[in-house]
Specification:
It catalyses: DNA(n) + a 2'-deoxyribonucleoside 5'-triphosphate = DNA(n+1) + diphosphate. This protein has 341 residues and is of the alpha/beta class. The chain contains 17 helices and 7 strands. α3 links the parallel β2 and β3.
Length: 341
């Protein structure tokens, strides 16, 4: 039986099935669903938890032995089988099916697996689990769905997140659900106001050093050279690691280079921005950079980025922070090779 993640807690309040398979490559969602099952099992008397890692050398007889052995300390057990590659192999498949032929009423089996491929989803062991218990397949949240996911998560924490604030938070956490969830928790812990708007996100979340780097790069893309240098000096004074600054700049330069290439091949700037899913809140900044730079100016910017990266890693000459100043000025200013339109 398939259970959708959002309905799992409600189903667990009604019953505890003999076996659950939680699979997917989105760590946060897998972890939270597995935690919900663990809590439900403990509340129903499974006071002993036995964890088995089904790696390459795992002896599948261990699963059957735990299933048949009575616990010395409790009457009910939660047997947790970790299957990272979601491929138990022939021996594992037989062991799982054999276990489910006559599952112990005193045990609950929780299988936590990686993403299932089509072969695994059609396998005998998967069908046995689906017949005897429940399967939960967890998929990554698409970028377009992330703001709504954040609003739902905020609501569960007693907060109201405006659509603009959700879009900003989604953009800055770059689709990282764990980071996004942590920022929601931070806002809930602050407890100043349950209504969260863009200003609240900016003041309470994006003020951290990591998000300060994003703001600095956006300022450079927008063309404000003086403010960009002031922000860079502030980040340096705060002790922000060069690796973080370089990573964010490199990420934005890859985007700008891709946009420049698309426009050079005849695509309209607005169409290119939309195709690369540039968030609405960043359209003005990225669009301004796209107006200033093209195939003539980008090679120099990329060369400056390589020089800054080499200096930051210790194998290039010069001071890395000075290289960053030169790079950011090149991004913020209109190239002499690129005349005003």
């Amino acid at each position: 039986m398939r259970i959708y993640p959002e309905k799992l807690r409600g189903d667990l309040q009604k019953r505890l099935l003999p076996v659950y398979l939680v699979s997917g490559d989105e760590t946060l969602l897998v972890q939270e669903c597995a935690d919900s099952i663990r809590v439900a099992a403990r509340e129903r008397g499974c006071s002993e938890r036995i964890v088995m890692d089904a790696g390459r050398d795992f002896d599948w007889q261990e699963l059957l032995q735990h299933a048949s052995n009575l616990s010395l300390f409790s009457q009910q057990q939660l047997l947790e089988l970790r299957l990272p590659d979601a491929k138990p192999g022939s021996e594992g498949s037989k062991a799982i099916c054999r276990y489910l032929d006559n599952p112990s009423p005193d045990n609950t089996l929780l299988i936590v697996a990686g993403k299932l491929d089509r072969t695994a989803a059609n396998s005998k062991w998967f069908r046995a689990i689906d017949s005897a218990g429940a399967t939960l397949s967890l998929w990554p949240v698409n970028p377009g769905e992330l703001p709504r996911w954040l609003q739902q998560r905020a609501a569960a924490a007693g907060l109201t997140l405006t659509s603009e604030a959700a879009a900003l938070l989604a953009e800055r956490t770059e689709g990282n659900l764990l980071a996004a969830a942590q920022e929601i928790e931070k806002l809930a812990l602050l407890g100043e106001n349950p209504h969260i708007d863009v200003d609240s996100v900016t003041d309470n979340v994006l003020s951290s050093a990591r998000f300060g780097v994003f703001s600095m790069v956006d300022t450079a893309l927008a063309g404000d050279a003086r403010s960009t240098l002031r922000m860079l000096q502030g980040l340096r004074a705060e002790g922000v690691e060069l690796a973080v600054v370089m990573w964010v700049i490199a990420r934005e330069l890859r985007l700008l280079q891709a946009l420049v290439e698309d426009c050079a091949q005849g695509m309209r700037p607005q169409q290119a921005l939309q195709q690369h899913r540039v968030w609405k809140s960043r359209l003005a900044a990225v669009g301004a950079a796209l107006e200033r730079h093209d195939r003539r100016s980008m090679p120099r910017i990329l060369q400056l980025a390589l020089q800054a990266d080499a200096a930051a890693k210790g194998y290039g000459p010069g001071d890395a922070w000075q290289h960053l100043e030169t790079l950011l000025l090149a991004i913020a200013r209109r190239s002499a090779l690129h005349p005003v339109r």
